[in-house]
Each structure stands twice: as structure tokens, then as C-alpha cells.
Design a protein that fits this description.
258 residues; two-stranded antiparallel sheet; four-stranded antiparallel sheet; 52% helix; 10 helices; Chitinase A, domain 3; alpha+beta
């Protein structure tokens, strides 16, 4: 009764000539119904639907009244939730946009560095463990006297990494044999066994069978990734413009902390 009296006095003192409306739209009712069906796996009865609508009315009333009372002013959780909801709505509106081929090409041209495909190699190698040989140079000379093209898999020292790789990127090579090895491949000629190529394991004899030079990707090569990145950047741009426009409508003051 005491709480009711306080609320009555508060509401009476804050009465306005034009009462604000609480509208439960058809869309909201459809949403409530869909949520009920998803949870209960059946349609709500008339009584259940009325209860859902009544609860929504109470929720809207409480929220609106809470805003008028200033209860949201210091509630960072609610503020953050509203911010997230607004940003979600903006992002969702962009997510369905399909960029035109011209827009994709312009986006690709603007971000060439991002979509440059590194060289791709097919190569064979023979591993030489420096701990197993006192004179590595003479061992390499002995190896070169053999039929390397056909015996490469049987020569040299054993290691866990395969002796032949096909269509492997420099990033993959770096993970397997180290950055130094991957960078050295860029300097080697094709179809010729080269010696003393160093890796994190030791030294190698290497022959490059095929090399696809680095190049800027085409839309066809990265269509799915390009469309995703286009939308992500578009969402960021829309949010920046949205907040910039909002800021222009307010006088923003940041007080000194000391």
C-alpha cells in the first residue's frame, strides 16, 4: 500500500495533458507468437497470447516510466544493450546488400595489398642434418653426383617433413621450414638443383619444379572473401557516419578527471 501510494503520487505529479501511447503492433504480436512456438513447439492459445501481450504492455510501461524517471542515466548495462541493438539493426541492414561487380572491382583496386596472393611453389628437397656430417660440402658434392631427380626421396638424412611439396604457399612453407627457407625460394631458378638452402632444421638441396608468382587476386579467385570484407567495411563506415551525425546534434562535454 505504501509503495502503491508513492507510485500514485509520483504518477499524479508527473501527469501530462497528452498521454503517451503504448502500441503493440501486429509485427510485435507475430514476434511474440513465433518466440512461443519456438519454445513450446505449438501455437499459443487465446489466453496464452493475451498473457504474452499483457506482459509486453507491462514491459513497455515499466521501461518508458523508468526512462522518464531517469533510471537509465547511470545504468551502463542497459545503455550498452541499447547501443548493441542499434548497431545490430544498422549492421543487419547492410548485411543483405549485394555489391555490384563494379563496386567489388573498385574495392579490390583500393585494397590491392590486402588481396595480393603470395607465390605458390611445387618443389623437392633433400635434407642434410649438420650434426651427422663433419664435412657437409663434400657430402653435398657426393649427393650431386647421383641421379637426384629420381633418387631424391632416398638420399640425405631422414626428417619428419615430406621430401616433395606441390602447390604450397610461402606462408605454409614458412610454417614448415622457417621464414629464411621460404624467402630463399624466391631467389632460386626453376628446374635446377640448388645446394646449401638453410632451414630451421639444417641444410637442403632444393629444386623448384613450378612457381606461380605473387599477383593481385581476381574477383573470381576471392569472390566470397571479397564480398564478406566489402560488407564488413560498409558496416564500419555506416556506424562511423551514424555516430558522426548523432554527435553533430549534441553539445558533448568531457569533464576533466582531476
Amino acid at each position: 500500500m505504501v509503495v502503491g501510494s508513492i507510485l500514485f503520487i509520483y504518477l499524479s505529479n508527473n501527469d501530462t495533458s497528452t498521454s503517451p501511447q503504448i502500441v503493440i503492433t501486429k509485427g510485435k504480436i507475430a514476434q511474440l507468437t513465433a518466440q512461443f512456438i519456438k519454445t513450446r513447439q505449438r501455437e499459443p492459445s487465446k489466453e496464452e497470447l493475451k498473457a504474452l501481450i499483457d506482459n509486453q504492455i507491462k514491459e513497455n510501461l515499466a521501461f518508458t516510466h523508468g526512462v522518464n524517471m531517469g533510471l537509465l542515466e547511470d545504468d551502463s548495462i542497459i545503455k550498452r544493450r541499447i547501443q548493441q541493438k542499434i548497431e545490430f539493426m544498422l549492421n543487419d541492414s547492410i548485411a543483405s546488400i549485394e555489391p555490384t561487380p563494379k563496386e567489388l572491382q573498385e574495392y579490390l583496386n583500393k585494397h590491392k595489398k590486402r588481396y595480393t596472393i603470395a607465390p605458390i611453389y611445387s618443389f623437392r628437397h633433400i635434407y642434410i642434418n649438420p650434426d651427422n656430417h663433419q664435412d657437409i660440402e663434400s657430402f653435398i658434392t657426393k649427393l650431386k653426383s647421383k641421379d637426384l631427380d629420381n633418387l631424391y626421396g632416398e638420399l640425405g638424412d631422414s626428417m619428419i617433413i615430406e621430401s616433395q611439396f606441390k602447390d604450397i604457399t610461402t606462408a605454409q612453407i614458412a610454417r614448415l621450414l622457417g621464414d629464411k627457407f621460404a624467402k630463399t625460394l624466391d631467389t632460386l631458378p626453376l628446374h635446377s638443383w640448388q645446394s646449401s638452402i638453410k632451414s630451421g632444421y639444417g641444410e637442403h638441396l632444393v629444386i623448384i619444379d613450378k612457381k606461380t608468382p605473387s599477383h593481385i587476386a581476381t574477383i573470381k579467385e576471392i569472390d566470397r572473401v571479397l564480398r564478406r570484407d566489402f560488407r564488413v567495411d560498409a558496416q564500419k563506415r555506416v556506424l562511423e557516419e551514424f555516430y558522426k551525425e548523432l554527435e553533430s546534434q549534441y553539445i558533448i562535454k568531457v569533464e576533466e578527471s582531476k
